[in-house]
Design a protein that fits this description.
transport, Importin_beta-like_NTR, mainly alpha, 54 helices
Length: 1005
Amino acid sequence: MDSSSAGAAPPQTMDEVERLVQRLYQPGNPRVITQINDQLQRLQHSSEGWQIADALLNSQDANVRFFAALTFTVKLNNDGSMLDAETAQSVQSRLISWFVRLVSRGESALVTRKLCSTLTTYYLRSPVHWKRPLLHAALSLQSRDAASEPDPDASVNMANICKSLSMPQVVSLLWFAGTLADEVGRMENNTPAHARRHAQMEVIVEDASSLLRHAFSPVADEAGARLRAEALRCYITWVNYGQPVWPQKPDCLEYLRQLIPSAVQCLLDPELQRDALDSFRDILESYTTFFREEHMEVLASIISEHVQPVLLQALQDKDPEGLPYGQMVIAFGDANIQQVAEQPENINGSSTILKLLFDILRAPGYPGDEDELSIFSIEFWNTYIEYVNDMLFSKDADGADPPWFGYSRVVLSQLVELLWAKMSTPPADVAKQWTDAESDGFKEFRLDTTDLMLSIYVFLGKDMLQQLLVLTLRSLESRQWRAVEAGMFCLNKLADNVLEDQPSEDLLAMLFSSSLFRDVADFSQRIPLQARRTAIDLLGSYGRYIEHHAEYLPDTVRFLFASLETGPLTNAAAKSVASLCSTCRASLTGELDGFTQQYQRFLNGPTNEPYTKEKVIGAIAAIIQAIQPHSAKVQPLLALIQYVENDVQAAKDFTRAGDQEMAELMGVNALECLGSIGKGMQVPEDVPISIYDDDEPHVSKANFWDGDEGRMVQQRIIGCFSVLQVLGSSGEAIEAACQVLRSGFAETEPGPFVLPPAVTVSFLQQCAVNTPQLEAVLSTACILITQHSKSDSKRIGPDATAVCQQAASFIKQLGTPRNDPGVAASCIDVLCRLLPYYTAVLFDESSPLAPSLQTILDFSTQAIEGQDPFPKRSALDFWTRLIKPPTAPVQEQVLNRMRQVVTAYGPQLALALMRQVVGLAQRSDLDYVCEPLKALITHQPVTKAWLEAALLSDSLPPVSAAVGEREKYRFLQQIVGLRGDSRKTKEVVKEFYAACRGTVVSYGS
């Protein structure tokens, strides 16, 4: 559309509109259609719009007639409900008249369908109640002009009228009927007018069913086939309408159910079969209860006699045309799952369905490529096993199994083998031809299938495991590596379940005592890479089993370390090495020297990458942790630390050479490796701690790491932090350093990574308010204080003071929480951790923090008033802890100081809390706001006066007009009367919050 047309005055007459449409219309160009509609806006809203639109329908141009019908629709949507009865009746008459006239002269489908939509809009929007629109339209078509609307009580037979109509006329009625069901179905039943329209559909369905019965009548010609096709589409639309609207209206649904035998005949028509399959599949999937038992029997017979041969041939030929036939089988089985499971001997039903579903999985092709049906079939099998398992768990523990369980075991055993076979990966030459979508489809099938197998394992248990092991080992004997890989893939996914089931675990010796891991470790053999990768994953998953069967460790570990040197396997191997060595550490101590040598060789090889270095060095550290006595750990541990020190020095060298990118890469990885060593050196949670001393007569576990050798190891560890001098601006480096410190916090007794608290304090003190990842450093300091707040831990008053001083310094520099919400929240979290064991750090008047106390308190109060949720929640937690009486002994002068603070800040805090409650808070913050509120009410007698003054303050934000002083006093009485009851206080606060924001109809009624 040119610019002159876009700016021109909208047309005012029929001639102008017709010329405009003829000049501008371009078929298939939605932008031009939108522009024409814009030009027609004034016409569609003008008083002359009805007459001009009516006149436009007489145009010789089909495009103009289309826009005329569209104009009627727009006018009805905008003005239909405001028409007086006489005008509404006139519009109805003109629309019916044009409908009859255009259909009679062979109007195009585009215009006729649009006019059907216009008639439906009239039905929905007109103030005049149109009782039987379908029958009225049919009578009008019969009389060749707009007929009088039939009397509701008149015995007018829709079926007889249809017999006198031509095929195009019946088709147009089907379009009208389908549009009615579709458009009314979109309309909510939430107003009297809408409810009346839905109620009227209960009458209209009788006319629609008569129309459909006529249209489904068998006529052996091309016109009859087209009529049945349109009838089928209309029928499905009505069924979809009835599903949500008439669940309690069996009489209405009966009109549609009676048509099932007629509609089913479309499944036998070669011209209609595919559309009919899609239609009935849709009903089976979304509205199973629509079909009665006799209907299901008919469908089962059709599947057996007509669908089955077509599907089997399509599967054999890899013909995609078989897809709707297979989907019909799957949907039918899903909809009749009880019969399929419990009556497997039913020849026309269950046995046919199960056979076809097995045939789908037996068919050639790979899921995601030319085989789509296998992917769809998984949904049925999920339903099947879910039903079987439900029956398994619903029966009494000592009760007899249902008689059909035996057959289900046979079915599921066959299914496991078919799924295993279908999961085999394609040869490389096939996979290379796949698109990303095809590759993703195959991967998704494998994942969905293993999820299904987990459910099957619940029912079959060790029998299924044994079956998979036999299939895998049989394939191993014949060197069918893709089948071996599929078996390992399944076993890998079942690991958690198998390892929790002792009878199943005992079967694993079949696999681990085989030649599998010796074979895959022999890289001279031509074995698919995927098979080796899956074998690596398998070892990571079954580490707990190997831990108790040390005889299998040499083969498995040798294979994993060999895989480290194979590029595509490196990451997977590193992950499994870490998992296996951590789990089996005690059984691998004798292999430590060999592992260290292999690590050195790995570092000099091409697969040495940051991730793999970190994983493998942590794996070796886990073995070192298992060595006894402690003194024996020193030298191998120092050897690992030496690798880290080498990387630290390399980072410094790169910095001097001006290559900061490489310096950061080496430095960050050095700290990540150090953190991985620290994690590996942690005592496993499931390892009992011996109460006896080590073999060394004078050095116990409790103090070895405080001795000269232990301190020397720790100094070497601490020395690695010097890399931060050249990487201070790297957030990744700071985060990695925090992980090193945290690795020692998890320990319950001294160890090489249980560093003195001063190390963490010094690390924090070297940070500035703009240091990257400062939140991580502050969080690490919080964990330090928490660890030393336990009842049996050593108190670190001076270190806690130093941490708090640094946090206070950051608070002063920030000025307000909104300048950096993340750092603000972390600083307040530090303050929270001081209570109750380090209360004196804040509130002793001789504390170095005393001059900063007011700044800290003001900052935390500002955080409550702020918009950022994390500082707000941290501050609310801080004040809750401060208000409540300490749970640990506190000096009297400190306790008095705390009371003074609460008394001094009480009115300010009460106002801040009430400002949140009346609307400033997010609803998700209200539970946090309630905590200090409850604490005040419970522990501060003057709280009621504080809250009353706050609720009447001019500083409160505006609230809904429905909340006045009376409502505020009512709220105050409620929360004070609850005396800190947690659940009820939250309910009252949320109700008042909603009232203040005007999101409830009334409050206090």
